[in-house]
Amino acid sequence: MGSLSSLIWAFWYILPAYFANASPVLVGGGRPIDGGRTWRDGRRLFGDGKTWRGLIGGVSIGTLVGVVQYRLTPSFYGDFRTAVLLAFLLSFGALLGDLVGSFFKRRADLPRGAPAIGLDQLGFLISALALAYPVKTLSSGQIIFLLVVSPFVHWGANYFAYKMGWKSVPW
Amino acid sequence: MGSLSSLIWAFWYILPAYFANASPVLVGGGRPIDGGRTWRDGRRLFGDGKTWRGLIGGVSIGTLVGVVQYRLTPSFYGDFRTAVLLAFLLSFGALLGDLVGSFFKRRADLPRGAPAIGLDQLGFLISALALAYPVKTLSSGQIIFLLVVSPFVHWGANYFAYKMGWKSVPW
User: Fold this and answer.
1) Could you point out which of A29, A45, A56, A165 has its C-alpha 20 to 30 Å from the C-alpha of B160?
2) Across all residues in chain B, what is the average pLDDT?
3) How far apart are the C-alpha atoms of B29 and B38, rounded to whole Å?
4) Does B2 touch chain A (CB under 8 A)?
5) In Å, how far is B89's CA from the nearest CA of chain A?
6) Cβ of A137 and B138 within 8 Å?
7) CA–CA min distance A10, chain B (Å)
8) Are B167 and B113 in contact (CB under 8 A)?
9) pLDDT digits 0-9 by tens, A11-30
C-alpha cells in the first residue's frame, strides 16, 4: 500500500472529513434539516439527529481544519485556495454522505442512533473522497488503506466519545 | 472520475469479485466454516450461512471468470498468470470480506440473512480491492466510482435474485 509516510499523508488528506463527521456530536442539536417532513413510507426523511446546526457547524469546523493544515504543510496543497476548497469539499462530502446514510436508515426503519455496520464507518468517507476528487485525490493504495482502517478509527473514536460522556451509545 | 471507457474497465476489473460474492446463493449450503463453534459472547463465529462449499465454489467461479476474461481481453492483463492470480485474489478477497462482515454481524447479534446497510455492499469490495492491490490495481477515480455505484448494483442484483426465487429476502 506504499510507504509509511504515504499512509500518514492519507490521514492528513482526509482529516477535515473526520472532523466534520465527528463535530455534530459537539455542535449538533437545533432544527432538523427535514423540518419534520416524512417520505412516502410515512417515516421521517432524515430524522431529528440531522440538524442545520450540525451540518453548518461540521462544515465550518472541517474547513477551519483545512486552514490550519495549510499553515502547517503549505507544500502539500500548493496554494491556500486549494487547501480551503479541498477541506470544504471533504467536510461537506462527509456530512452529505452521513445525510444520505440517514435517509437509507430511516427507509430500513432503523431508529435514530441505531448503528448500521459499514454505512456509518464508510458512507461519509466515500462521499468525502468522491466530492474532493476533482480538486485533489490520493493514490489508489492510499484510498484502499483508508477504507480498511477507517472502520477501526471510527469505532475507537466513538467508544472514546461514549466513555467521555459526549455520546449516549458506544457507536 | 475519468472517461466512460475507464469506468467500464473498472467494472471489468472487479467482475470476479461480483461473481464470487453472488455465487454462494447458487452453490452454497453444506457444512458451516465455523463448524458450529461460538465466540466468547456465546454466539456463533460466522453462522450457518457461511459454508465451505460456498467459499470454495465462490472462489472457483470467480477464478474461472478471470480465465474467460483473459481470453476476451488478454492485453488488459498482460499474461495469463496475472489474470488468474488477480481473479483468485479478487474472489478470495470478496468472500473473506463477506466472512469478516458475518463475524461482525454475529457480534452485533444480527440474525443470519439480516441486512447490514453498507457492510453488505462495501465490505466484499474493499476486501477484494485490498487483496488484489499488489498484483494489479485501478486508478483512484475508478475505485471511488466503484465504491459509489456498487451499493446500487448490489441492491439491484439481490432484488433480481429475490424476484427469481433464488433468495428468500430482497437484500
Assistant:
1) A45
2) 89
3) 19
4) no
5) 15
6) no
7) 13
8) no
9) 999 999 999 998 887 887 88
Mutate to test the interface with B, among A98, A104, A109, A117 (most CBs of B within 10 A): A117
ipTM of the assembly?
A: 0.86
Question: Model confidence over B62-102: pLDDT tens digits?
Answer: 999 999 999 999 999 999 999 999 999 999 999 999 999 88
Q: Helix, strand, coil proportions of chain B in percent (round to 5)?
A: 65, 5, 30
- Calculate the alpha carbon distances from B68 to A28, B26, B49 in Å: 53, 20, 29
Output the CA–CA distances (angstroms, integers) from residue B150 to A99, A115, B18, in the order listed. Answer: 19, 21, 9
Phi-psi region at A15: left, alpha or beta (left = phi > 0; alpha = psi -120 to 50): alpha
CA-based nearest residue in chain A for residue B102 = A117
Distance, in Å, from the CA atom of B156 to the CA atom of B12, rounded to the nearest integer, reads: 18
Cβ proximity of A13 and A62 under 8 Å: no
Q: Which of the two residues, B51 and A151, has the higher pLDDT score?
A: B51
Q: Is residue A51 a contact partner of residue A33, using CB atoms and an 8 Å limit?
A: yes
Q: Are the beta carbons of A120 and B120 separated by less than 8 Å? A: no
**pLDDT reported for residue B105:** 85
Using pLDDT thresholds of 50, 70 and 90, give the confidence band for residue A2.
low
Please check whether residue A133 touches B, CB under 8 A.
yes
Q: Which residues pair with A11 in a beta bridge?
A: none
Question: Closest approach of chain A CAs to the CA of B78, in angstroms?
Answer: 20
Query: How far apart are the C-alpha atoms of B34 and B14, rounded to whole Å?
Result: 28
* B130 in contact with chain A, both atoms CB, cutoff 8 A: yes
**Helices A140-163, B119-132: crossing angle, 10 deg rounding:** 130
Instruction: Check CB contact of B133 with chain A, cutoff 8 Å.
Output: yes
Q: Tell me, what's the pLDDT at A171?
A: 64
The whole-angstrom separation of Cα B37 and Cα A82 is 53
- The pTM score is 0.88
Task: Determine the 3-state secondary structure of B44 from DSSP.
Answer: strand
At residue B41, does pLDDT exceed 60?
yes
